[in-house]
Amino acid sequence: MNWHIKRLEDSKIVDEIREGRFKRYKLHRDSKQVAAMLKNFYPSVWDKWSNRLAEMFLSMSGEAAEKRGEGS
Predict the structure, then answer these.
(1) The organism sits in which domain of life (predicted)?
(2) What is the mean pLDDT of each run of 10 residues along the chain (72 residues)?
């Protein structure tokens, strides 16, 4: 993992932010630009990630409805 993160930092894709003993990483570039590059150059990865994101939101909305007593 460290090897990959180091390459992303060296390529100016992500920036490391130290917070105490933790490290956070932030996109150095515009997130819309990164998303467009993924869609154009890796469409199968984009499709897989977008499907997973949609499934996650649907799952979360179903759980929220169950908590409110609106479940099926």
Answers:
(1) Archaea
(2) 89 91 89 85 90 90 74 56
Query: Structure tokens of 18?
Result: 């130290």
User: DSSP letters along 1-68, please?
Assistant: -HHHHHHHHHTTSEEEEEETTEEEEEESS-HHHHHHHHHHH-HHHHHHHHHHHHHHHHHHHHHHHHHT
pTM of the model: 0.44
In the 8-state DSSP scheme, what is residue 17? E
Domain ranges of the chain: 2-67
